[in-house]
Write a structure and sequence with these properties.
mainly alpha; rod-shaped
Amino acid sequence: MLSGRIDVKYFRVNLFSMLIAGVAAVLACFSVRANEGEARWGQSYDAG
């Protein structure tokens, strides 16, 4: 019984951490594109 509850808690924590990691990765990609690669990405998107 206890092991089942602990597994559920860890499963929820893992999902939550995965969501946070995904959001952080997306925000990092957007920030890098906006700050460092604005000229390159902007030109490629405008041309495409």
